[in-house]
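Suppose you are handed a protein chain with no further information: no name, no annotation, nothing but its sequence. What can you learn? This example shows the usual starting point.
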Amino acid sequence: MRQSRSSSNASISSSEEPENQQLFVKLPSGETLSLLLPTDTSLPTLLHLLSLRTSAPLISLRLLYAGKHLTSATSSSPSNPLHQTPSSPTLQTLSIPPNATLLLTLPILGGMPPPKKQRCTFKDCKDAAQRIVGDCSFCSGHYCGKHRMLEDHVCSGLEDCKAEGRERNKITLEGERTNVIRGV
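A reasonable first move is to predict its three-dimensional structure. Written in structure tokens, the prediction is:
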């Protein structure tokens, strides 16, 4: 008789306490959290627990298991994240086995604004600057088709450019010069 009492006590105690299961949650930083949770833990409760452990806002947390997003759109309200409705999915109803690894992700926010169109840097001109051919390497300005030539935008490096051209021309002409050999 004693044996039957102990087995009935064991069954009573197991029906009172839900079964616990261990879960692993991989964070975006690469760390892995180990959690021991009851199988009847709801998804909003798990998300709230992870929000507290990671210091990330509850709204931005996303959980993935087996390549699928675990969502509970109707289960949590913004004012009370622990508020559970009868339709709140639990670890058991989501078919998450013990020792499973869940992936915690955060949404990518922001990004770069669209690039502004470059405008001609010549005085009062508001035309769009031409790419590559409108870039002046002497004054680092960006110019439209009307002002892209050095003479048109009165480049500060115009004299330097002319001097470089003369020097190149001089070197070329000296290289092509013929020497007369006298006395042959």
